[in-house]
Design a protein that fits this description.
Order of helices and strands: EHHEHEEEHEHEHEHHH
Radius of gyration: 17 Å
Strand order of the largest sheet: 2-1-3-6-7-8
Structural class: alpha/beta
Largest sheet: 6 strands, parallel
Number of helices: 9
Number of strands: 8
Length: 194
């Protein structure tokens, strides 16, 4: 049974990828964490075959974590995932150290699973992150003005970090607003095609 590590500080993404593990990775044992420090501890004790690595974590930024994981797991298939578009020079650097780069936004489970399988089978994929799609502003009844504002930012393609920067609010505040929106409108509001 192959061992897979998911490293992402967004608990919803981690939970989604872990629950979707069989569809994404086949018969596997899945570990997940939100920090690079914990990821390195896991990497030292397991024989990881696949690693999904968020580009920006609370305790590391950019490619620093990728370098550390690659040195600990030289044979693992490392796929960088990110909700934000890295600069061109980072994508070039990733190509030398990672097996692929996938954007978190805009993927349905089957597309993500297919991309992961292709990368695992030696076909590197380095997506060019999509420009955010602008949608017509729409006010959803039942949402407060703040919830509508945050929802529009997510629908416009902003990542949670971008929304935090844009609003100046804390991460826990934005995550609680997102949770309220999901409770009122259902989970599909964030997965509908753009």
């Amino acid at each position: 049974m192959k061992q897979v590590l998911i490293i992402d500080d967004d608990s919803l993404i981690r939970e989604y990828l872990t629950k979707s593990g069989y569809n994404l990775f086949g018969d596997s044992e899945i570990f997940s964490t939100s920090t690079m420090q914990d990821a390195l501890t896991i990497a030292r004790t397991m024989e990881l075959k696949v690693i999904l690595l968020d580009l920006i974590l609370p305790d590391t930024r950019g490619l620093e974590g990728l370098d550390k994981l690659r040195s600990l797991c030289p044979d693992a298939c490392i796929i960088v995932i990110s909700g934000s578009a890295p600069p061109e020079n980072q994508i070039l650097e990733m190509k030398a150290k990672a097996d692929g780069f996938l954007s978190k936004s805009g993927h349905h489970l089957t597309e993500l699973a297919n991309a992961i399988r292709k990368i695992e089978n030696g076909y590197p994929i380095f997506e060019t992150p999509r420009e955010p799609v602008r949608v017509i502003t729409h006010s959803y009844s039942g949402l407060s003005p703040v919830e509508n504002q945050v929802l529009q930012m997510f629908l416009n393609g902003l990542s949670i970090r971008d929304v935090i920067k844009e609003t100046g609010k804390s991460e826990s505040y934005i995550k609680s607003i997102r949770r309220n929106i999901r409770e009122k409108l259902g989970d599909q509001i964030f997965s509908s095609p753009r």
